[in-house]
Design brief:
Elements (H helix, E strand, L loop, with lengths): L6 E5 L7 H15 L6 E5 L5 H8 L5 E4 L16 H6 L4 E4 L2 H5 L4 H13 L3 E6 L9 H14 L4 H4 L3 E4 L13 H18 L2 H6 L1 E4 L8 H8 L3 E4 L6 H13 L1
Parallel strand pairs: 1-2, 1-8, 2-3, 3-4, 4-5, 5-6, 6-7
Helix pairs in contact: 1-2, 1-11, 6-8, 8-10, 10-11
């Protein structure tokens, strides 16, 4: 089976704090990715900057991503952002169920509803799964399997193939810690096995898997080559155009 084209997504989180800085960062990233068609690259700025960032990357291969979405399209939902609004801004990808959102109370049911909404409107959901800590008994595998099964309950084979799964060990996000390449490979094998049991082997192999958790230019090559995921969900290193570009190059070269 042909290997899925890697995807690298920069999640800017609550950064930067000015529109000018966001614009400059978007321009710098777009300039560095202008001639690159593979791997796929996307950036997810804060909501207030989506339109401006979209303009700055429009003539490059960089795509626009959103950090979240609400499952209702329109109405009295103060503070939320609709998938229709994201589509109007030409967003391609939507991050759903990030650990930081789950820590604020987002449930598996919330994730399911958001994924169904995003798929209905033909955007690509990037669904985050991951454990808060690892235990010697391997119970964290059950935790991740439960997250995947809860989502799969409402998705057909065709729908699941359109989902991107991002494995993000919570203990490695913004901590400077990172899973080893062996840890990432072990999780890649496990997630594929779970999807195979739920669906079938071809479906499992067609789902793009990303790794997210303190990815840097220094560890990207080993994590990609040995971890055998289909790309990265990058946090802090996506806030410097040079570092983000180096991660993209690492994927290309490995």
């Amino acid at each position: 089976m042909k290997k899925t084209v890697p995807l690298i997504v920069g999640n800017w989180k609550l950064n930067p704090v000015t529109l000018s800085d966001a614009s400059d960062l978007a321009k710098a990233i777009a300039r560095k990715q202008k001639s690159i068609s593979e791997p796929y690259v996307a950036v997810a700025p804060p909501f207030p900057y989506l339109a401006e960032v979209g303009k700055k990357i429009a003539k490059s291969s960089v795509q626009l991503a959103s950090q979240d979405v609400y499952f209702k399209n329109i109405g009295a939902y103060t503070g939320e952002v609709s998938v229709l609004q994201l589509k109007d801004l030409e967003v391609e990808y939507v991050i759903i169920g990030h650990s930081e959102r789950r820590a604020m109370g987002e449930s598996n049911e919330d994730v399911r509803q958001k994924v169904l909404t995003v798929l209905k409107h033909r955007l690509v959901p990037i669904v985050c799964v991951g454990e808060r800590e690892r235990d010697d008994q391997g119970n964290f595998f059950t935790f991740i399997e439960d997250q995947i099964r809860n989502l799969a309950e409402v998705l057909s084979v065709a729908e699941m193939k359109k989902v991107v799964l991002a494995y993000e060990p919570i203990w490695a996000i913004g901590t400077g810690n990172t899973a080893t390449a062996e840890d990432v490979k072990e999780m890649q094998i496990f997630i594929v096995s779970v999807l195979t049991r739920i669906y079938d082997r071809p479906t499992a192999k067609s789902v793009r898997l990303l790794y997210g958790g303190s990815v840097t230019p220094q560890n990207a090559t080993e994590l990609h080559k040995e971890g055998d995921m289909n790309g990265f969900l990058v946090g802090g290193s996506s806030l410097k155009a040079e570092d983000f570009s180096d991660i993209v190059k690492a994927v290309v070269q490995s």
